[in-house]
């Protein structure tokens, strides 16, 4: 299967696997040289280090005045903004764990070195089986492990339902795009995530794994998310 082959390249051989990121590692401990661009970046932390707080996972070199926030799915809005000071670190030391996403704003382009261990649920010699996301509404999510391209299934743990959507941000161009799944087709291209990237997923409520319900697109919630996040 492609996952087995691809993951062996990432975690055992140590090769470049993305035009925008380089991943080098040995076994399931490694590091990622992650470019972060001037403006907004929807980021992920795909290697666990220490307590996975901002002060732990970001290395020296973060520019003064960079900001970070996370998305609160219960209130459907962003949390208070954390600001980086080169002398004192982050004003709010958020945790960024496997499967989560965050919005980093940087005044300039820089590269952060993420180091640590791969998600412990990953089986090196088997296919990647992501945890099932059971929440609904607008969620800021990422793939648990650094693979590219990461598909909807790799992030959510199931196939998409009619009316569900994904909003991605191209950090280079600062352009966001939304694609909606209808009748087996994405209306604006199949959503894929690169290494170190997160995206907004607008998901329907799934009462039981075998009985997915179809409620609606929920694009109004996504528009609200973008209003709070993309400034």
What topology does this entry show?
Blueprint: H1 2-13, E1 22-26, E2 29-36, E3 39-43, H2 54-57, E4 67-69, E5 71-72, E6 77-78, E7 82-85, E8 89-90, E9 102-106, E10 110-117, E11 137-142, H3 152-156, E12 165-170, E13 175-182, E14 185-186, E15 198-203, H4 219-229
Antiparallel strand pairs: 1-2, 2-10, 3-9, 4-7, 4-9, 5-6, 7-8, 11-15, 12-13, 12-15, 13-14
* Structural domain tally: 2
Number of helices: 4
The assigned structural class equals: alpha+beta
- Characterize the main sheet: 5 strands, antiparallel
Number of strands: 15
- For the record, the CATH architecture of the largest domain stands as Sandwich
The outline comes out as globular
Query: Roughly how many Å apart are the termini?
Result: 41 Å
The top-level CATH class of the largest domain is Mainly Beta
Secondary-structure element pattern, one letter each: HEEEHEEEEEEEEHEEEEH
Largest sheet, order of strands side by side?
Answer: 3-9-4-7-8
Portion of residues in helices? 10-25%
Nearest-angstrom radius of gyration? Answer: 17 Å
Defining traits:
single chain; 231 residues; alpha+beta; Jelly Rolls; 2 domains; five-stranded antiparallel β-sheet; 4 helices; disordered N terminus
């Amino acid at each position: 299967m492609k996952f087995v082959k691809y993951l062996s390249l990432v975690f055992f051989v140590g090769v470049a696997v993305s035009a925008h990121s380089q991943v080098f590692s040995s076994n399931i401990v490694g590091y990622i040289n992650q470019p972060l661009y001037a403006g907004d970046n929807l980021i992920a932390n795909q290697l666990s280090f220490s307590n996975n707080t901002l002060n732990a996972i970001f290395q020296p070199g973060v520019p003064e005045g960079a900001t970070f926030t996370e998305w609160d799915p219960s209130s459907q809005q962003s949390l208070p903004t954390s600001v980086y000071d080169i002398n004192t670190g982050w004003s709010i030391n958020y945790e960024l764990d496997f499967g989560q996403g965050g919005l980093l704003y940087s005044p300039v382009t820089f590269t952060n070195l993420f180091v640590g261990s791969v998600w412990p649920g990953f089986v090196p010699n088997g296919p990647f089986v992501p945890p099932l996301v059971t929440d609904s509404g607008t969620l800021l999510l990422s793939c648990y492990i650094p693979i590219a391209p990461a598909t909807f299934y790799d992030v959510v743990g199931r196939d998409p339902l009619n009316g569900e959507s994904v909003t991605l941000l191209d950090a280079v161009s600062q352009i966001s795009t939304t694609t909606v799944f209808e009748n087996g087709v994405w209306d604006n291209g199949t959503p894929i995530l690169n290494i170190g990237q997160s995206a907004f997923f607008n998901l329907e409520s799934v009462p039981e794994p075998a009985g997915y319900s179809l409620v609606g697109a929920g694009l109004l919630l996504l528009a609200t998310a973008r209003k709070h996040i993309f400034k």
